[in-house]
C-alpha cells in the first residue's frame, strides 16, 4: 500500500501524546471498576474467558482517546489500530502513521478489583515500526519513550555478586513457564534460589517494573492457549524500554509476535532468547525469525 505522506510527524505526536487527559481516563476506569462488583451489564463479553474479556471501561476509554486525537492537530494524519473495534470517522487516505491503542490492559485484573491495569497508546510508522510509546498505570504514573537510556547491570555482574535476578515470564497458561528456572539455570550458571520468577497480569505493569528497575528482564513465550501470540497493542510499552536502554528481541512467526525478550545488555537478551527456544518444541524454533532492537510489532 502506498501513502502520499511518508514522514511521521514525530514532534507533533509527542506534543499531543503528552496532553492526553489522564484524569478523565482514570476517573472513567475507576468508576466503572467499582460498579463492576454489582452491575454485571458492564462486562460486555468474555465473562468466562479472561483473554476475551471486554468491559464498558474498554469502550469508554477508547472513545475518549479517539475523540481526543480526532480533535487534535494530528487529525487526518493517521489510521487507527485499536484492541476494540470502535473507530472514529478519520477517513483520510494521506496518512503517515498509525495510532495504536490498548484502552484497558489487564482487564482480568481490573475485573477482580486489583490495581494491575493501565492504558497504552503508541505511534507506528507505515513500515510497522513503533516510534512512540505512552503508558499509564492505574496509580496515575506514566512512562514513555524519550527518556535517556541508562547503563544497566548485566545478569553476569549480578550473578557474580550473588544477587537475585527477577524475570517476568508469561505463556498464556501453557505451562512452559513451569520449566523456566531450570532452563535459566543451565544457560546462566545460576542457582535456583537466586532466580525470582514473576508473571504480571498486565503488560503495562511488567513494563513499568522494568522501567523503574524492579525487574531485571522479561520472557514471553509462544503458546497454544489464550491469544497464542502477542498483538501489537500489547507491546506498546516496549518503545519506552528500548529508549531507556534495555535490549529487546522479538521472535516472529510470519507476521505474529510469538516470543518477547527484554534484558539489560545484548548478551543477556541473546541468552534469554535461547532460554525461550530451549523451552519450545523443535517445530516452533525453526519457524521463528529474530528481530533485535527493532520494534516491528506489525499490526
Order of helices and strands: HHEEHEEHEEEHEHEHEHEEHHE
Alpha plus pi helix count: 10
CATH-defined architecture of the largest domain = 3-Layer(aba) Sandwich
**Apparent shape:** globular
Report the mean per-residue pLDDT as an integer. 91
The assigned structural class equals alpha+beta
Count of discrete structural domains: 2
Low-confidence stretches: 1-5
CATH fold name of the largest domain, please?
D-Maltodextrin-Binding Protein, domain 2
Helix content: 25-40%
For this entry, what is the oligomeric state of its chains? Answer: single chain
Spatial sequence of strands, sheet with the most strands: 9-8-10-12-11-13
Give Rg in angstroms: 19 Å
CATH class division of the largest domain:
Alpha Beta
Distance between the termini: 14 Å
| Topology, number of strands | 13
User: What fraction of the residues are assigned to beta strands by DSSP?
Assistant: 15-25%
The largest β sheet comes out as:
6 strands, mixed
Quick recap of the structure?
The protein has 299 residues and is an alpha+beta fold.
Please render the helix and strand layout as text.
Elements: H1 10-17, H2 22-35, E1 43-45, E2 54-55, H3 56-70, E3 78-82, E4 97-105, H4 107-111, E5 118-125, E6 130-137, E7 142-144, H5 155-160, E8 165-170, H6 180-188, E9 195-198, H7 203-211, E10 217-220, H8 238-244, E11 247-253, E12 256-263, H9 266-278, H10 282-287, E13 289-292
Parallel strand pairs: 3-4, 8-9, 8-10
Antiparallel strand pairs: 1-2, 4-5, 5-6, 6-7, 10-12, 11-12, 11-13
Helix pairs in contact: 2-3, 6-9
Keywords: Magnesium, Metal-binding
InterPro entries: Inositol_monophosphatase-like, LisH
Pfam family, one: Inositol_P
